[in-house]
Amino acid sequence: MSVCGEAVGAGSLPSELVVHIFSFLAAPDRLRASAACSHWRECLFYPALWPRLRLSLRVSPTERPRLEFLMRKCGWFVRELRVQFAADNYPTGGGGAAAGEGAAVAGDGEAPPPLSPRWLDLLRTYLELVLCVLSSVRNNRNLQKLSLFGDISILQQHGTISNTYLGKVDPDGKKIKQIQQLFEEILGNSRQLKWLSCGLMLQIVTPTSLSSLSNPIANTMEHLSLLDNHIPGNTTLITAVELERFVNLRSLALDFCDFTAEMARVLADSNHVPLHRLSLLVHSVSIMHKSLDNMPKDENWQALTRNSTNLRVYIMAFDVKSDDMLRILKPSIPLERIHFDSYVTCVSGAVVDLISRQYDKFLTHFILMNDVIDMSAFPDLSDNRNEDPLVLLAWRCTRLSLLAVHGYTVWAHNLIAIARLRGSDLKVLEVTEESIEFDQGELADQDVDPVHNFIEQVSLGLGRPWHAVMDIELLSVFTEPTRHFYREMQSFSEGI
């Protein structure tokens, strides 16, 4: 090809045209196309091409050079930044078991279990990556959405990390202070921020962080998620007085113990726009250090739902005792999704029955997970085999679209009943193979293969092929609960 007698190559195309071509390509294709020449590489990071940046980073030293390059190129203009930190290939030994997976938990006055050098290297790298991200966006005034999540629950050791292990990698606390200052600078410099989400990020958010937001920005904020539940004692990351500034908040995510009756009254005020989504994380450690005494009463929930008629609630409970759950589950909560995750304390049939009675008009998602070591002794929710709580849940909750069970006994005939009751409206039915039990009468029938017949009957009930799943297939739901909650909370809030 020639123009006016001169050869034209890829490098001769105007930058505006190259950027226009890139705008039609997916991010991986843009990266491949940018390898054509240096001119195209320069066009790759044109601001209009990168309004959103979503990163899932391994906590590994090899990530840092790539992260620094990308944040240097995009950090100053990106409008939506979502970063997820995850420690893959967790080292073993030296106290490195995950919380709830046999990890020793230090009590009052006891020395916490030691961490291996590899664990400390992971924590040190994690701090460096967080610093890299925050420093790159500190002066970005165009930032509209900021979401930060650190899946470091395996490092937290039930909350002891902030008091013990951080001192080994940041003995004078300079890095933590720098991280907190950078975060406050980002909030203070923001001019368009409408979405702020920070979860399990290891002391990024402090009780004074939100005061850095100007009143105009606080007044226009639409989503706020503060799940940095690392602070011991009764300290909370936001108070009811501070929440009064966020009059346009449509979505909120907090530790349940931080969501008080006074906060519910603030959100129920006529000056506040209707709240659409509320995500609450209930953790046994939080209940132990804080209290349920200040939680909203049923009249507070009633007032809130009068002002927010479309409000829907998502609750995730970690190792919460059934007695506490019975206190938490007020009748007037418009509960749409609930996820139980247990390592020590099992959910009782009474709790499941209460949920099916109180939230039959709202409930769409029900996840029941019990990660016990003894695979031969799964708890059975049903005291009366003729009235299984999960079957009653499927019968009463006519909007149920997702049911996932692992680590609890589910009888084959009850699973068939659930499939028939909800039919094709039950979009997701995930039950691990080891959770399913058969009656002795079914197994004794030599003329029928009980497993084949069971799968066939469930498939007929759902109107589609179905099979039980292996535990590994449920990795994102059952073995990475905090990451699953973060993803669900994001999609739950964005689905307004």
Model description:
- This is FBX33 protein.
- Residues 7-53 form the F-box domain.
- It comes from Chloropsis hardwickii.
- By secondary structure, this protein is of the alpha/beta class.
- Among the domains are: 13-49, no CATH class; 50-88 and 118-221, no CATH class.
- Helices cover 38% and strands 16% of the residues.
- The protein has helices at 15-22, 27-33, 38-44, 63-74, 117-137, 153-156, 166-169, 174-189, 215-220, 240-243, 261-268, 284-289, 298-307, 322-328, 349-358, 389-396, 412-422, 440-444, 450-462, 475-479, 481-494, and strands at residues 2-3, 6-7, 52-58, 80-86, 145-151, 195-199, 223-227, 251-255, 277-283, 312-318, 335-342, 365-370, 402-406, 410-411, 428-431, 436-437.
- Strands 3-4-5-6-7-8-9-10-11-12-13-15 form a twelve-stranded parallel beta sheet. A two-stranded antiparallel sheet has the order 1-2. A two-stranded parallel ribbon has the order 14-16.
- α5 packs parallel to α8 (174-189).
- The radius of gyration is 25 Å and the shape is globular.
- The protein starts with a strand and ends with a helix.
How would you summarize what this structure contains?
Residues 7-53 form the F-box domain. Strand 7 (223-227), helix 10 (240-243) and strand 8 (251-255) form a beta-alpha-beta unit. The termini are far apart.
Whole-angstrom Rg: 25 Å
Instruction: Give the N-to-C terminal Cα separation.
Output: 51 Å
Overall mean pLDDT score? 83
Per DSSP E runs of 2 or more residues, the count of β-strands stands at 16
Strand percentage lies at: 15-25%
**Spatial sequence of strands, sheet with the most strands:** 3-4-5-6-7-8-9-10-11-12-13-15
**Would you identify the regions where 5 or more consecutive residues have pLDDT less than 50?**
1-7, 89-111, 154-160
**Structural class of the secondary structure composition?**
alpha/beta
- Which overall shape is indicated by the principal axes computed on the Cα atoms? globular
Could you estimate the helical fraction of the residues in percent?
25-40%
In DSSP terms, counting alpha (H) and pi (I) runs of 4 or more, how many helices?
21
Largest sheet, in brief, is:
12 strands, parallel
